[in-house]
């Protein structure tokens, strides 16, 4: 799949994250949610349908992905969901002026190792402004050599692994994929570490 088109597919991680949101839908009304790297926006749209106040974002350098977010909103009768350009690792007026958030969503954003620190830099910035916020993320395990553990320590973040069985997402039709091959899906919740590192 060519790089510019990453955001034009509903990747398996998005389906799994959408399942997690649906499973926890009772907790979503009124929660302020930001989806980063939204692409087709499946998790963000599910959150909006469940009553969350959602903002969708993707790279300001990928106007076709931002347009795809807007099109997804219109097709799902959510024309008032804001779509903004946020590029990971870059301080921009859009990032600085974001309203408070409770939940940051990111499905399969940990795709290219060169982007991992930029993603976590942006997440850390948002959590510094919103210390109670959590980053709910799903990703495909593509290589045992690709890890964010050292970056989590560097940015004073902690993570909790969420077993897919705990929200009925460990099923072939949810986590199976032929894009770009079959991989294990994982989910974690990332938050600020306490001053003692926990």
Automatic annotation (TrEMBL):
Gene Ontology MF terms in the entry: methyltransferase activity
Recorded GO CC terms: cytoplasm; nucleus
Biological process, per Gene Ontology: methylation
InterPro entries: Methyltransf_16, SAM-dependent_MTases_sf
Gene3D superfamilies, A to Z: Vaccinia Virus protein VP39 (3.40.50.150)
The entry's keywords: Methyltransferase, S-adenosyl-L-methionine, Transferase
Protein name as it appears in the record: MET23 protein
Organism in which the protein naturally occurs: Nothoprocta pentlandii
Gene: Mettl23
